[in-house]
Design a protein that fits this description.
The chain is of the alpha/beta class. The chain contains eleven helices and 13 strands. It has one domain: TIM Barrel, CATH 3.20.20. The strands form three sheets. Strands 1-5-6-7-10-11-12-13 form an eight-stranded parallel beta sheet. A three-stranded antiparallel beta sheet has the order 2-3-4. A two-stranded antiparallel ribbon has the order 8-9. Strand 5 (71-76), helix 3 (87-106) and strand 6 form a beta-alpha-beta unit. Monomer. Keywords: Decarboxylase, Lyase, Metal-binding, Zinc. It holds the Pfam family Amidohydro_2. Its EC number is 4.1.1.45.
Length: 340
Protein backbone atom coordinates (compact mmCIF):
# COMPACT_ATOMS: atom_id res chain seq x y z
CA UNK A 1 0.00 0.00 0.00
CA UNK A 2 1.23 3.52 -0.81
CA UNK A 3 2.74 5.77 1.86
CA UNK A 4 0.78 9.04 1.71
CA UNK A 5 1.70 12.19 3.65
CA UNK A 6 -1.40 14.37 4.08
CA UNK A 7 0.36 17.31 5.77
CA UNK A 8 3.13 18.85 3.66
CA UNK A 9 3.54 22.51 2.75
CA UNK A 10 4.58 24.45 -0.31
CA UNK A 11 5.45 28.10 -0.94
CA UNK A 12 5.68 28.57 -4.71
CA UNK A 13 8.25 31.07 -5.89
CA UNK A 14 6.07 34.18 -5.66
CA UNK A 15 7.72 37.57 -5.94
CA UNK A 16 7.01 40.53 -3.70
CA UNK A 17 5.29 42.28 -6.60
CA UNK A 18 2.91 39.34 -6.90
CA UNK A 19 2.37 39.30 -3.15
CA UNK A 20 1.24 42.92 -3.30
CA UNK A 21 -2.14 41.63 -4.47
CA UNK A 22 -2.62 41.61 -0.68
CA UNK A 23 -1.29 45.16 -0.14
CA UNK A 24 -1.66 46.28 3.45
CA UNK A 25 -1.50 42.82 5.02
CA UNK A 26 2.26 42.23 5.09
CA UNK A 27 2.35 40.67 1.67
CA UNK A 28 3.77 37.12 1.61
CA UNK A 29 6.59 36.43 -0.81
CA UNK A 30 9.61 34.18 -1.16
CA UNK A 31 13.20 35.46 -1.22
CA UNK A 32 15.33 32.81 -2.93
CA UNK A 33 19.09 33.00 -2.38
CA UNK A 34 20.25 30.79 -5.26
CA UNK A 35 22.07 28.28 -3.08
CA UNK A 36 19.14 26.04 -2.14
CA UNK A 37 18.11 28.27 0.74
CA UNK A 38 15.55 31.03 0.99
CA UNK A 39 13.47 33.15 3.32
CA UNK A 40 9.73 33.34 3.69
CA UNK A 41 8.93 37.04 3.86
CA UNK A 42 6.02 39.07 5.23
CA UNK A 43 6.46 42.46 3.65
CA UNK A 44 9.87 43.66 4.85
CA UNK A 45 9.96 41.19 7.73
CA UNK A 46 11.89 37.93 7.59
CA UNK A 47 9.49 35.21 8.71
CA UNK A 48 11.32 31.86 8.46
CA UNK A 49 14.42 30.42 6.75
CA UNK A 50 13.53 27.60 4.35
CA UNK A 51 15.16 25.24 1.86
CA UNK A 52 14.50 24.39 -1.77
CA UNK A 53 12.06 21.55 -1.19
CA UNK A 54 9.50 24.20 -0.31
CA UNK A 55 9.49 25.70 -3.81
CA UNK A 56 11.30 23.20 -6.07
CA UNK A 57 9.20 20.14 -6.94
CA UNK A 58 12.24 18.17 -8.13
CA UNK A 59 13.89 18.56 -4.73
CA UNK A 60 10.65 17.58 -3.00
CA UNK A 61 10.24 14.41 -5.04
CA UNK A 62 13.88 13.50 -4.39
CA UNK A 63 13.28 13.96 -0.66
CA UNK A 64 10.17 11.80 -0.90
CA UNK A 65 12.10 9.07 -2.70
CA UNK A 66 14.82 9.12 -0.04
CA UNK A 67 12.21 8.93 2.75
CA UNK A 68 10.04 6.24 1.16
CA UNK A 69 7.02 8.54 0.71
CA UNK A 70 4.97 7.72 -2.37
CA UNK A 71 2.50 10.62 -2.36
CA UNK A 72 2.22 14.02 -0.67
CA UNK A 73 -0.86 16.20 -0.38
CA UNK A 74 0.65 19.64 -0.99
CA UNK A 75 -0.88 22.62 0.84
CA UNK A 76 0.11 26.25 1.07
CA UNK A 77 2.10 27.60 3.99
CA UNK A 78 -0.39 29.30 6.38
CA UNK A 79 1.44 32.64 6.02
CA UNK A 80 -0.11 32.71 2.54
CA UNK A 81 -3.79 32.52 3.61
CA UNK A 82 -4.46 36.27 3.26
CA UNK A 83 -7.49 36.28 5.56
CA UNK A 84 -6.90 39.90 6.59
CA UNK A 85 -7.15 41.21 3.05
CA UNK A 86 -10.12 42.79 1.31
CA UNK A 87 -12.14 39.80 0.02
CA UNK A 88 -11.89 40.50 -3.71
CA UNK A 89 -8.12 40.92 -3.43
CA UNK A 90 -7.92 37.74 -1.38
CA UNK A 91 -9.90 35.84 -4.01
CA UNK A 92 -7.49 37.00 -6.74
CA UNK A 93 -4.55 36.01 -4.54
CA UNK A 94 -6.00 32.56 -3.88
CA UNK A 95 -6.57 31.98 -7.58
CA UNK A 96 -2.93 32.92 -8.22
CA UNK A 97 -1.63 30.67 -5.43
CA UNK A 98 -3.85 27.80 -6.54
CA UNK A 99 -2.62 28.09 -10.12
CA UNK A 100 0.98 27.98 -8.88
CA UNK A 101 0.31 24.95 -6.69
CA UNK A 102 -1.25 23.15 -9.67
CA UNK A 103 1.80 24.00 -11.79
CA UNK A 104 4.10 22.86 -8.97
CA UNK A 105 2.38 19.46 -8.85
CA UNK A 106 2.01 19.06 -12.62
CA UNK A 107 5.45 17.54 -13.13
CA UNK A 108 4.66 14.60 -10.83
CA UNK A 109 0.87 14.24 -10.83
CA UNK A 110 1.02 10.70 -9.47
CA UNK A 111 3.17 11.85 -6.52
CA UNK A 112 1.85 15.31 -5.59
CA UNK A 113 -1.80 16.04 -4.78
CA UNK A 114 -2.59 19.78 -4.97
CA UNK A 115 -4.73 21.34 -2.23
CA UNK A 116 -6.25 24.78 -2.81
CA UNK A 117 -6.67 27.71 -0.46
CA UNK A 118 -9.70 30.05 -0.34
CA UNK A 119 -10.63 33.55 0.90
CA UNK A 120 -12.35 32.17 3.99
CA UNK A 121 -13.26 35.67 5.21
CA UNK A 122 -16.02 35.78 2.57
CA UNK A 123 -18.19 32.67 2.33
CA UNK A 124 -19.58 33.27 -1.14
CA UNK A 125 -16.15 33.97 -2.62
CA UNK A 126 -14.62 31.04 -0.73
CA UNK A 127 -17.22 28.71 -2.23
CA UNK A 128 -16.59 30.10 -5.71
CA UNK A 129 -12.81 29.72 -5.42
CA UNK A 130 -13.17 26.19 -4.03
CA UNK A 131 -15.46 25.21 -6.90
CA UNK A 132 -13.03 26.63 -9.47
CA UNK A 133 -10.12 24.86 -7.79
CA UNK A 134 -11.92 21.52 -7.76
CA UNK A 135 -12.76 21.89 -11.44
CA UNK A 136 -9.10 22.66 -12.18
CA UNK A 137 -7.97 19.45 -10.50
CA UNK A 138 -7.28 20.32 -6.88
CA UNK A 139 -7.85 17.30 -4.65
CA UNK A 140 -8.84 19.18 -1.50
CA UNK A 141 -8.85 22.55 0.23
CA UNK A 142 -6.55 23.81 2.98
CA UNK A 143 -7.97 26.28 5.52
CA UNK A 144 -6.85 27.96 8.71
CA UNK A 145 -8.61 27.04 11.93
CA UNK A 146 -10.13 30.52 12.36
CA UNK A 147 -10.62 33.85 10.63
CA UNK A 148 -9.94 36.59 13.16
CA UNK A 149 -12.31 35.96 16.05
CA UNK A 150 -14.49 33.58 14.01
CA UNK A 151 -13.83 29.93 14.78
CA UNK A 152 -14.79 26.98 12.57
CA UNK A 153 -18.22 26.78 14.21
CA UNK A 154 -19.07 30.25 12.88
CA UNK A 155 -22.26 29.87 10.80
CA UNK A 156 -20.60 31.24 7.66
CA UNK A 157 -17.60 28.92 7.94
CA UNK A 158 -19.95 26.01 8.60
CA UNK A 159 -21.72 26.97 5.38
CA UNK A 160 -18.40 26.77 3.56
CA UNK A 161 -17.74 23.32 5.02
CA UNK A 162 -21.19 22.28 3.84
CA UNK A 163 -20.30 23.47 0.34
CA UNK A 164 -17.11 21.39 0.39
CA UNK A 165 -19.14 18.33 1.38
CA UNK A 166 -21.61 19.01 -1.42
CA UNK A 167 -18.92 19.19 -4.12
CA UNK A 168 -16.93 16.31 -2.59
CA UNK A 169 -13.86 18.36 -1.68
CA UNK A 170 -11.88 17.14 1.37
CA UNK A 171 -10.80 19.81 3.88
CA UNK A 172 -7.49 20.03 5.75
CA UNK A 173 -7.68 22.40 8.76
CA UNK A 174 -4.41 23.87 10.03
CA UNK A 175 -3.77 26.00 13.15
CA UNK A 176 -2.35 29.44 12.52
CA UNK A 177 -2.21 32.98 13.92
CA UNK A 178 -1.95 31.53 17.42
CA UNK A 179 -3.65 32.95 20.48
CA UNK A 180 -1.86 34.83 23.28
CA UNK A 181 1.41 35.24 21.38
CA UNK A 182 2.26 38.17 23.67
CA UNK A 183 2.67 35.61 26.46
CA UNK A 184 4.59 33.08 24.35
CA UNK A 185 7.82 34.89 23.58
CA UNK A 186 10.78 32.88 22.36
CA UNK A 187 11.56 29.17 22.02
CA UNK A 188 8.84 28.78 19.34
CA UNK A 189 6.23 28.60 22.10
CA UNK A 190 3.39 29.71 19.77
CA UNK A 191 4.06 26.52 17.77
CA UNK A 192 4.66 24.29 20.79
CA UNK A 193 1.76 25.55 22.94
CA UNK A 194 -0.47 27.67 20.71
CA UNK A 195 -0.88 25.20 17.85
CA UNK A 196 -2.21 22.34 20.01
CA UNK A 197 -4.52 24.74 21.84
CA UNK A 198 -5.83 26.28 18.61
CA UNK A 199 -6.57 22.86 17.17
CA UNK A 200 -8.39 21.64 20.28
CA UNK A 201 -10.42 24.87 20.29
CA UNK A 202 -11.48 24.26 16.68
CA UNK A 203 -12.54 20.66 17.28
CA UNK A 204 -14.42 21.34 20.52
CA UNK A 205 -16.08 24.39 18.97
CA UNK A 206 -17.53 22.23 16.22
CA UNK A 207 -18.59 19.51 18.66
CA UNK A 208 -20.13 21.60 21.43
CA UNK A 209 -21.85 24.06 19.10
CA UNK A 210 -23.74 21.23 17.43
CA UNK A 211 -22.16 22.13 14.08
CA UNK A 212 -21.63 18.50 13.12
CA UNK A 213 -25.37 17.98 13.47
CA UNK A 214 -25.83 20.61 10.75
CA UNK A 215 -23.12 19.27 8.45
CA UNK A 216 -23.48 16.33 6.06
CA UNK A 217 -21.81 13.11 7.17
CA UNK A 218 -20.13 13.10 3.76
CA UNK A 219 -17.83 15.95 4.87
CA UNK A 220 -14.20 14.78 4.93
CA UNK A 221 -12.39 16.99 7.44
CA UNK A 222 -8.89 16.45 8.83
CA UNK A 223 -7.14 18.39 11.60
CA UNK A 224 -3.37 18.72 11.46
CA UNK A 225 -0.88 18.18 14.29
CA UNK A 226 -2.65 15.16 15.68
CA UNK A 227 -5.74 17.15 16.60
CA UNK A 228 -3.64 19.15 19.05
CA UNK A 229 -4.50 18.50 22.69
CA UNK A 230 -7.97 17.12 21.86
CA UNK A 231 -7.30 13.43 22.47
CA UNK A 232 -5.48 13.93 25.77
CA UNK A 233 -8.18 16.24 27.16
CA UNK A 234 -11.24 14.48 25.73
CA UNK A 235 -12.09 12.99 29.11
CA UNK A 236 -12.15 16.48 30.58
CA UNK A 237 -14.53 17.63 27.85
CA UNK A 238 -16.82 14.61 28.32
CA UNK A 239 -16.87 15.13 32.09
CA UNK A 240 -17.85 18.76 31.60
CA UNK A 241 -20.59 17.80 29.12
CA UNK A 242 -22.13 15.32 31.57
CA UNK A 243 -21.95 17.64 34.58
CA UNK A 244 -22.67 21.17 33.33
CA UNK A 245 -25.74 22.12 31.34
CA UNK A 246 -24.00 25.17 29.88
CA UNK A 247 -21.43 22.85 28.27
CA UNK A 248 -24.02 20.56 26.65
CA UNK A 249 -26.51 23.32 25.81
CA UNK A 250 -26.04 23.02 22.04
CA UNK A 251 -24.78 19.45 21.55
CA UNK A 252 -26.97 16.40 21.82
CA UNK A 253 -24.12 13.96 22.51
CA UNK A 254 -20.86 14.08 24.49
CA UNK A 255 -17.73 15.03 22.54
CA UNK A 256 -16.39 11.46 22.49
CA UNK A 257 -19.33 10.35 20.35
CA UNK A 258 -18.30 12.58 17.43
CA UNK A 259 -14.84 11.18 16.73
CA UNK A 260 -16.20 9.40 13.66
CA UNK A 261 -16.92 12.75 12.00
CA UNK A 262 -13.36 13.89 11.38
CA UNK A 263 -9.77 12.75 10.91
CA UNK A 264 -6.43 13.79 12.40
CA UNK A 265 -2.88 13.41 11.18
CA UNK A 266 -0.20 11.46 13.02
CA UNK A 267 2.16 14.36 13.83
CA UNK A 268 2.53 13.70 17.58
CA UNK A 269 6.13 12.36 17.44
CA UNK A 270 5.80 9.80 20.24
CA UNK A 271 4.43 6.23 19.99
CA UNK A 272 2.80 6.63 23.40
CA UNK A 273 0.90 9.69 22.21
CA UNK A 274 -0.01 7.96 18.96
CA UNK A 275 -1.38 5.00 20.90
CA UNK A 276 -3.77 7.32 22.75
CA UNK A 277 -4.69 9.09 19.53
CA UNK A 278 -5.55 5.81 17.80
CA UNK A 279 -7.51 4.59 20.83
CA UNK A 280 -9.54 7.82 20.85
CA UNK A 281 -10.04 8.30 17.12
CA UNK A 282 -9.99 4.72 15.85
CA UNK A 283 -7.41 3.21 13.53
CA UNK A 284 -9.42 4.34 10.50
CA UNK A 285 -9.30 8.05 11.42
CA UNK A 286 -5.54 8.76 11.71
CA UNK A 287 -3.35 9.53 8.68
CA UNK A 288 0.37 10.08 8.21
CA UNK A 289 1.31 13.75 8.43
CA UNK A 290 4.87 15.08 8.58
CA UNK A 291 4.70 18.89 8.23
CA UNK A 292 7.37 18.66 5.50
CA UNK A 293 9.67 20.53 4.94
CA UNK A 294 9.78 22.36 8.26
CA UNK A 295 12.21 21.47 11.07
CA UNK A 296 9.44 20.88 13.64
CA UNK A 297 7.99 18.16 11.40
CA UNK A 298 8.67 14.43 11.46
CA UNK A 299 12.19 14.15 10.06
CA UNK A 300 11.89 10.43 9.19
CA UNK A 301 8.39 10.16 7.70
CA UNK A 302 6.33 7.38 9.21
CA UNK A 303 8.88 6.55 11.91
CA UNK A 304 6.44 7.12 14.76
CA UNK A 305 3.82 4.88 13.15
CA UNK A 306 6.37 2.13 12.46
CA UNK A 307 7.55 2.30 16.09
CA UNK A 308 4.05 1.45 17.38
CA UNK A 309 4.12 -2.19 18.43
CA UNK A 310 0.42 -2.02 19.32
CA UNK A 311 -0.39 -1.65 15.61
CA UNK A 312 -0.34 -4.79 13.51
CA UNK A 313 0.82 -4.70 9.90
CA UNK A 314 -2.68 -3.90 8.65
CA UNK A 315 -3.07 -1.09 11.18
CA UNK A 316 0.24 0.49 10.24
CA UNK A 317 -0.69 0.25 6.57
CA UNK A 318 -3.94 2.10 7.26
CA UNK A 319 -2.14 4.96 9.01
CA UNK A 320 0.69 5.10 6.48
CA UNK A 321 -1.57 5.33 3.45
CA UNK A 322 -4.81 3.38 3.42
CA UNK A 323 -6.84 5.98 5.30
CA UNK A 324 -5.50 8.77 3.11
CA UNK A 325 -6.47 6.84 -0.03
CA UNK A 326 -10.05 6.81 1.26
CA UNK A 327 -9.89 10.45 2.39
CA UNK A 328 -8.78 11.72 -1.01
CA UNK A 329 -10.77 9.27 -3.13
CA UNK A 330 -13.01 10.98 -5.69
CA UNK A 331 -16.48 11.56 -4.28
CA UNK A 332 -19.19 9.33 -5.76
CA UNK A 333 -21.53 10.99 -8.21
CA UNK A 334 -24.80 12.11 -6.58
CA UNK A 335 -27.83 9.91 -7.10
CA UNK A 336 -30.36 11.49 -9.46
CA UNK A 337 -33.06 13.29 -7.51
CA UNK A 338 -31.14 13.20 -4.23
CA UNK A 339 -30.81 16.26 -2.00
CA UNK A 340 -27.21 17.29 -1.20
Amino acid sequence: MAVIDVHAHVFPHLTRAEGRVLTGTGEPWLRVHGDGTGMMMSGDQEYRPVHAGLWEPERRVADMDAAGVDVQAVSSTPLMFGYDAEPARAADWCDLVNDRIMAYCAGAPDRLLPLAQVPLQDTALACQVATRAAAAGHRGVHIGNHVGERNLDDPQIVEFLRHCATIGLPVLAHPWDMMATERMRGHMLPWLVGMPAETQLSILGLLLSGAFERLPESLRLCFCHGGGSFAFLLGRADNAWHNRDIVRADSSRPPSEYTDRFYVDSAVFDPRALRLLVEVMGVERVMLGTDYPFPLGEQIPGSTIRACDFLDEAGQARLLGGNAEAFFAPAPAPVAGSVP
